[in-house]
Specification:
The chain has eight helices and 15 strands. By secondary structure, the chain is of the alpha+beta class. The strands form three sheets. Strands 8, 9, 10, 11, 12, 13, 14 and 15 form an eight-stranded mixed sheet that branches. The protein has a five-stranded mixed sheet with strand order 2-1-7-4-5, with helices on one face. It has a two-stranded antiparallel ribbon with strand order 3-6. A hairpin with a 6-residue loop joins strand 11 and strand 12.
Length: 309
Amino acid sequence: MSEVFVSPDEVSIPLVQPANLLEMAIEAGVAIAHLCGGRARCSTCRVRIVEGLDALTERTDEEAAMAAKLDFPSEVRLACQTQANDSVRLWRLVLDKIDVEMASQLGEGHYAGPVGREVQAAVMFVDVAGFTAMSEALPAYDVVHILNRFFNRAGDAVDSNSGRVDNYMGDGLLAVFGVDGEDDPAFSAVKAGLEVLAVAADMHDYVSRIYGCAFEVRIGVSLGEVIFGLMGAESSARETVLGDVVNTASRLESANKTTGTSMLVTEDVHAGTMDRVEYGRQFELELAGKDGHVVAHAVIGLTVPSSET
């Protein structure tokens, strides 16, 4: 017999005929949230389909609008708008009062954005070398001015290569490429990194002339699956990425100190861009938090002019 199996309740509901998921769950005594009464306005009845996605009806117009607003992946459905025609296994995503408050789209001041999804992306981590010494030698106003002058132009380099600045961390920035499905995120990240290095060289001329300090940056780039979503307290939540790919980019940035390079990328980035990027030495590195050696490649430049890529 067909069934709808609900986790984490571990309840099996017999499916005798096609039926609405929310109505079935309520009738079976499952404590599934539904603040708006099943009108696709609150999103608190959201569930993740573990098995049987093909056994469900297509999104209604109302569900499609909510899914677009919250960036639901295909397996996250509103139970109130979904009918099961065959066996389905699902997981309730709103389990308690805190979940309800965070998930509800009713009223003012609610979360609206990606609920969390895995995407293939390139991550670029940029850090200013010797920043601590610079910040101790210069007045606060000048330190902030220098960083903002650099961040402004570095951000332009990221934007012009279809990336987004994910976060600023003191004297560093984290940028991601591909989270919205852009093509060739690895090459976009490397190209943006080379433009950031050019900005840094320009900044060195500026900073050394005015302040008598050097200005250099180090860059690490990695590629792979990242988790992307809206994170943080509701009043300050923002879209961001996390995962091993982010950590690897950060570790590669730091590794430039020992390799004497300015920009290191992972083997996956190298493999996907070697026809358009000139690479120098290859390194086998021991990176904190990584088992074994990580192969890294030093970037020299593009093999063809930027206008031809």
